[in-house]
Design goal:
two-stranded antiparallel sheet, about 250 residues, 6-stranded parallel β-sheet, alpha/beta, 2 domains, binds 2'-O-acetyl adenosine-5-diphosphoribose, elongated, 11 helices, Rossmann fold
């Protein structure tokens, strides 16, 4: 790639854009102390691959183990705080709400806790549960939260984390809103994503095809560099406060 336009140039693009979409990934939360998805399996969990834990088949085979892993992730996330990057994004959204749309692949709630309005959560929310099998009549009255995982005491239906697992579809409404945002934006700001997981990564290519300027904030090269109009090789918490300051 030719030398990337610098931060001052990207600030001008943002200032001139009618619509800005933002797509964030795990790198956004790295400086809050939440390990990126591919770094998450540390310590005891490092013997597994994410693809082996984050699937419906894994949960049905070993519900307690997978539930424990999510419990570990939930504890980690609830102890974390939004970083300066989350706060800078929330501030610019609050200043100019109609111009900004924030789409995230992260299942933590750090954007929401920083004050970002209307976050489109493509991969669900770690803090929420739902029934593993569609809710049956007995389940509404039957939740036994004393077992882990919690289950319906009548039929045994399990609660599961309300996140998207490998092999599952994304929530249709969230995906439709995200598609619309990337098709209509003038600038797409992509922060902290490796661009290897689809369909989320495809949103970046869609924005490029529709003529948006694509800006990456990532200290490392990624799969998305080929369609980037600018690569800001900095971390989210360092780059975004300067990039987005009034
Ligand atoms: P990855 O873990 O694949 O990639 C994280 C990216 O963040 C890498 O490109 C890093 O270089 C970059 N990065 C690391 N620290 C950073 C920092 N401080 N500031 C900015 N960038 C930084 O995470 P995702 O791309 O989000 O899906 O992965 C996508 C999806 O893969 C996840 O949402 C998850 C997983 O499968 C589901 O859970 C469905």
């Amino acid at each position: 790639m030719h030398p990337s336009p610098d931060l001052a140039t990207v600030r001008q693009w943002l200032a001139g854009a009618r619509q800005v979409a933002v797509l964030t990934g795990a790198g956004m939360s790295a400086e809050s102390g939440v390990p990126t998805f591919r770094d998450a399996l540390t310590g005891w969990w490092s013997r597994f691959k994410p693809e082996e834990l984050a699937t419906e088949a894994a949960y049905r085979a070993q519900p307690q183990m997978v539930w424990d892993w999510y419990l570990h992730r939930r504890e980690l996330v609830s102890a974390a705080l939004p970083n300066a990057g989350h706060r800078a994004l929330a501030a610019v959204q609050q200043r100019e709400p109609p111009r900004w749309t924030l789409v995230t692949q992260n299942v933590d709630d750090l954007h929401q806790r920083a004050g970002s309005p209307g976050v489109i959560a493509l991969h669900g929310q770690l803090a929420q549960d739902r029934w593993l099998d569609a809710e049956r009549a007995c389940c509404a009255q039957g939740l036994d939260a004393t077992t882990l995982p919690p289950a319906c005491r009548h039929c045994g239906n399990l609660r599961r984390p309300a996140v998207v697992w490998f092999g599952e579809s994304l929530p249709a409404q969230a995906l439709a809103l995200a598609e619309q945002a990337v098709q209509t934006c003038d600038v797409l700001l992509v922060v902290g994503t490796s661009g290897v997981v689809y369909p989320a990564a495809g949103l970046v290519f869609t924005a490029h095809q529709h003529g948006a300027q694509v800006v990456l904030v990532n200290p490392e090269p990624s799969e998305l560099d080929t369609v980037a109009d600018a690569c800001l090789r900095q971390t989210a918490a360092l780059c975004l406060p300067t990039l987005l300051e009034p």
